[in-house]
Amino acid sequence: MQENVWNGVVRERIWDFFLQHQPELDETVEESLLISDGHFLGQRFRCAQMEAVWLVEENVIKLHASNGSIESIDVDTLENPVAKEASKRAA
Predict the structure, then answer these.
(1) What is the rounded CA–CA span in Å between residue 73 and residue 71?
(2) Residue ranges per structural domain of the chain
(3) pTM greater than the 0.85 cutoff
(4) pLDDT tier at 9 (50, 70, 90 boundaries)?
């Protein structure tokens, strides 16, 4: 369950990045699983001339814009919706 939540958070951040660089975006996002020797390494997302790679072991998202710029995001800095909901209930 926790991994599915993070997958949604990562997808949302990647989609925001794609929209920042191409606001009129209407193309399909292609997703690929990155697997090596039977081990899940992460996911690759492609849309238009942009690409994002989520590297699970490194816990980082690498974002590549069509203008050549590269942004790297530590997944730990993204807000965890499960923790946010738990803190609301505790308050």
Answers:
(1) 7
(2) 2-90
(3) no
(4) confident
